[in-house]
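Person: Please work through this fold.
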Amino acid sequence: MIFQIVNTLFTIYQFMIFGYILLSWFPNGRESPIALFLARLVEPYLSIFRSFIPPLGMIDISPIIALIALRFVEQGVFFILQLILGAF
């Protein structure tokens, strides 16, 4: 059960990042109430990657790297939980 909860939380956060990225493609998308809410939750994590990954022209690849890193963190958390709690 704890594995499902952790998996759900990681999935929700990944969708939040993806939604935040999609909102940036629309004019005035980042000023909507949903985008402002997502920015509060997602921007601190994304800023870590934006600080050392420069944009490639008009394309910012740091969110892609952030999503990949989040998957690695998720796998690490599952590994640690498996060590602590036992097998899946």
The chain has a mean pLDDT of 91. Helices lie at 2-23, 33-50, 62-85. Residues 19 and 40 are 13 Å apart (CA to CA). The chain is about 75% helix and 0% strand.
